[in-house]
Each structure stands twice: as C-alpha cells, then as structure tokens.
Amino acid sequence: MDIIIKPATTQHLPAILEIMNYNILNSTAIYDYSAKTLPDMEQWFADKQAANWPVIIAEQDGALVGYASYGTFRVKEGYKYTVEHSVYVEPGHTGKGIGNILLANLIELAKQQNLHCMVGCIDADNAGSIAFHKKFGFTDGGILRQSGYKFDRWLDLQFMQLILK
Question: Is the pLDDT of residue 165 over 90?
C-alpha cells in the first residue's frame, strides 16, 4: 500500500467533496447539516490558498483516499499561532494508517510555518478520533457540553490540542 501525500489542486476537489459530504450526511464529524456543492468547495479551497493554509491529499494507486488541512482557529490576532485542523479518510480506506500519515504531515507543515498550537474539535462521543489524536500527543483541552445539535440530539464538543514547539 503505497500512499503518496501531496498538495491538493482544484482537480482533487470533487473527491474531497465526496469525502466531506459523506461525513456531513452520515456522521457527527462535521456539524453541518446539508451537503456542500462543488462551488462551495472551490471557495473553500480558494480561501485556504489565499491564507496560505495547506490542503494535502493522500493518494493510493492514483485515487484520492483522504485529505487534511488546517486553518484559522479564531479570527482575533492573538490566535494567529494556533490552527484548527481536519483529517478525513475515504470511508472504504479507514483503519489502514492513512489518517496517521496525513496528520503526521500536517503537524510537520504547521511546524514549518512556525505555528505553536494545533487544535482538534471532535465530537465527544467519537472515541476513535480522540484515541487517534492522543497517539500524536494531543491532550484534553476541555469539553463544551451540548454546544452542537445534529441528528435530533445535542452534541458535546471535545477540544484537543497539541503544542508544536
């Protein structure tokens, strides 16, 4: 299983969109309710590029099997060294180490950009994602109780953080 990690381009957006929409419609990994469109993704990608935030992809045998990115945590200037990240793997490829490779690369990119803190915002019931982050040294940053609502229930948001340097 050779996984190639590289920067995303606009040609990757339809595959990223599929992964994102799967998570929107079938999980609490993303607290959006409605599927995104290709123009939504094009704007998302343009915004990432304009801010110099990375979007990386994992490819296997020429197929996109995951993506990761980070970006603004909060808009106040004092947060400029902290980023919020996302890592998503195509549903048929989970549990194969692809997320590990993506997150390791994302952490390295953040260090190269002289960032100080990386934050993960995780549904508190997602034990798999919490354990995944702990493997990389992320620590508990607190829980916001009943701060999200999806699938007719209140959701708790778990913050996890990694000090990069």
Answer: no
What confidence category does residue 125 fall into, taking pLDDT thresholds of 50, 70 and 90? very high
Cα 64 to its chain centre, rounded Å, is: 15
Largest CA distance in the chain: 42
Residues whose CB falls within 8 Å of the CB of residue 77, separated by 6 or more in sequence, listed in order: none
Q: What angle do CA 158, 19, 72 make, to 5 degrees?
A: 50
Q: What are phi and psi of 162, to 5 degrees?
A: -130, 120
Question: Considering only CA atoms, which of 117, 118, 41, 36 is closest in space to residue 85?
Answer: 118
**Domain annotation for the chain: domains and CATH numbers:** 3-163 (3.40.630.30)
